[in-house]
Amino acid sequence: MNEKIIKDKLVENFLKYLAIPSQSDDKNEIIPSSPGQWDLAKVLAADLEDLGLVDININNFGVVQARLPRRGDRSRSIGWVAHLDTVDVGLSDQIHPQIIKAYDGKDIKLNEEITFSSKDNPEVLSYIGDDIIFTDGTSVLGADNKAAIANIMTALWYLKENPEVDHCEIFIAFVPDEEIGLRGSRKIDFDKFNVDYAYTIDCCELGELVYETFNAASGTLKIKGVSAHPMSAKGNLVNPIMIAHDFISMLDRAKMPEHTENREGYIWVTDIKSDVLNLRLDFNIRNHDREKFEASKAYLYQITDLLKERYKKALIEIEISDVYDNIADSMNDENKVAVEKLREVFKCLDIEEKIIPMRGGTDGSFLSTKGIFTPNYFTGAHNFHSNKEFLPLDSFYKSFLVTLNLMQDDF
Asked: Is 169 a catalytic residue?
């Protein structure tokens, strides 16, 4: 295997897919939420056909699915899922990457106004001497998740170019709108994604391995008060803002995002909109532990009932809906081999594993609700969702090696 040729192909594919703007739009309820995701889906479908995959399809929601028949005697069927969208954090949807060759550890002028400081981003000093892909300071880099797409496509290219290499049956799903609530993964045709287990490649530095994510729910509290003129307000006015204040005051400040870490869950009030009569409060619930997750939901119902009793003239309603599950909840004795193989591959490639509980979710968090165990491994990038995002090429290459070894399924 020629490392330089592989790295060149990884970069070529990455830059090709970055050139297609595909930022998702959370204000648009249509899936996919942006036309660029359609454009990228069509390009990927054509590329998959060139690589010899079969059963290629783009459904009405922009989900690209395909299959590569097994070669040799590998018995497993394994899936890979990556998302088409890049995140909208108020930066440009046009991505103009730059490659810094043999990084020397100094600050980098991303553009005339923005400098990447090694003091503020000391993790970059671990990659002195490596080629690193940065942004131009006007956008995210989009390694989340186009590094994963390029990784998968390069591994499929390698298998095509090396017909003597046996591999398992491979299922691919490229999905839209992961960044705005895992919307696209819900639209996979699971009848055509018949896998023993699957993988996502969606996050972070060399060696990260994730098979535990949050259980997640979102909710809304709606309050309709009673309006009245101040001259006759006494005994009549019911202020929905003050009721919402009571609701928030009954939450534990120590169990909010700004005070929690690792496996600690939280309730997060994310938005309030109100006038003198109607109020809407939005919140998120997150916890790795299923019992604590359910207990948080039960507590919010309980305090809502208390408010209804306290403010009988008001109309108070609460709705809570599950968004995704902890990936670990779908792990069993049969499919835990997915993690065991990842760890074996890491060891074989001399990659130090960093097993972390993710304080968030991946597309695998939804797949777990369908009974598909879907652990996640690293892209190699840092500073996701930031114009300081960067991708060291050696880490990118090692992520590719992990993918290729998993596809060969000979461990």
From this structure: no
Record the tokens describing residue 246, joined without a space: 């009571």
CB atoms inside a 10 Å sphere around CB 408: 18
Q: Residue 47 catalytic?
A: no
Q: Is 27 a residue whose pLDDT tops 70?
A: yes
145 burial class (0-12, 13-18, 19+ CB within 10 angstroms)?
A: buried
Q: Minimal CA–CA distance to 175: which of 85, 279, 56?
A: 85
pLDDT of residue 410 exceeding 90: no
Give the Cβ contact number of residue 207 at 10 Å: 20
Q: Which of 88, 177, 178, 363 is catalytic?
A: 178
**What's at 117, amino acid-wise?**
S
pLDDT score at 282? 98
Q: Cα–Cα distance between 133 and 135 in angstroms, integer?
A: 7
**Token pair of 282 as six digits:** 């939005």
Separation CA 70–CA 169 (nearest Å): 4
Kindly state the tokens that stand for 49.
């056909």
Q: Is 52 helix (H, G, I), strand (E, B) or coil?
A: coil
What is the pTM (predicted TM-score) of this model? 0.91
State how beta strands 77-83 and 98-100 pair: unpaired
Helix (H) or strand (E) holding 128: none
Please state, in angstroms and as integers, the Cα–Cα distance from residue 236 to each residue in 93, 287, 328, following that order.
Answer: 50, 40, 51
- The active-site residue out of 47, 85, 179, 208 is 85
Residue 316's DSSP bridge partners are 223
